[in-house]
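Fold this sequence, please.
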Amino acid sequence: MANTNPAENKMGTMPVGKLLFTMALPMMASMLFQALYNVVDSIYVAQLGQDALNAVSLALPLQNVMIAVGGGLGVGMNALLSRSLGEKKFENADRAANTTILLSILAAIIFALVGIFISRPFFALQTANENIIRYGTDYTSICLGVSIGIFLQFTAERMLQATGRTVLSMCTQVLGAIINMILDPILIFGMFGLPRLEVAGAAIATVTGQIVAAIVGLVLNVRLNHDIHLRPSMVRWHSWTVKEIFRVGLPSMLMMSVGSVTTFTMNKILLGFSEAATAVYGAYFKLQNFIFMPVFGLNNACVPIVSYNYGAARLDRLKQAVKYTICTAICIMTCGTLLFEFIPGILLGFFNPSGEMLSIGTVALRIVGIHFPLAGFCIIAGSVCQAIGNPFHSLVISVGRQILVLLPVAYLMSLTGNLNLVWFAFPVAEGMSLLLSSFFLRKTLKKANERMMEQ
């Protein structure tokens, strides 16, 4: 029998501006905290030398694939869960939550095997530097081998976000980040009588924080999230639910996995210039998190609002949410551009840079930072398409931007022998993404309007 829920969720009743603000603020804060601990990881690792920093940078493609799968499952569940609540189909919402737990466990098993057997060959494929290979193998074998924490953390947090409990979601993220930041120096450098584990210590700190955050997140859902019900008997395969989760989530996984291909290929291109260029690319990824993570937090708040009101056939609220979110995202990204343009040397200084790395990175950040405001619009537009049920639009945009434009342009520019020209591939690719995002967003909103008029 379907669950009953007489009180409508706040996503269908609270004024849109206030709703977005109250949901987004804690999520943006928690994402900033996530960005902080990612940067802190690299800052500590950089003290071990450029080889250690390069190892963590070269590990990004494997980590990004793992994050892509976890994030994609979360996106698929989030959209289905929120839409089901809007349609008052509470049994479907419960199935979405419980089935995603099973999918997360299965994903963790697969990535554990990848971490154990693929880590060393993966690094050996990228470099002959034995020090980097050793550091990288230590790091990824732990991060992927004990990935159960990150997958269940994604799932638990998205359940809270999908039902509007973003403050609780923030608490789990912040808790995991604090644990990681506390353990980082202790395990990396061997404090308080513990052995010096170096890069492996950073990995252990990361997975420990993720496991604790996952446990707390699941407990909060069981005790405080009354819109869904987690039951061991429902943590099982349900074909229709799995299909719906992957219908929206799979394009998101592929889209983020494309980023792994891009990172791997860019590392190969940059290694053709110097290892310092690759270190700059890794530092850039960490620094951009401070700019992009708040937008991703804003984005995560927008998706359940859009999905809920789409399910409830409330076009006016849906359009308001999209408008407010896009404007806020562009403002945040503009601030990021200003930081990259005016204080690139200060930002790079956190990573103990060599003179070569600082010289390369100062120019790189100023060039790459140009595209941030465009990216803000594209991120939100793609997620709105996903939330309404057109996930392949986002996939087309991502593949077009990275595979068809970014990498070819970067490669062609590398043939000139001028490293500075390679960085221009980022703003060029984002310009193409802007055109596609604008087209698909208009098309998606038009179809949503037609669907609601038919109801």
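DSSP finds 17 helices and no strands in the chain. Confidence is low (pLDDT under 50) at residues 1-6.
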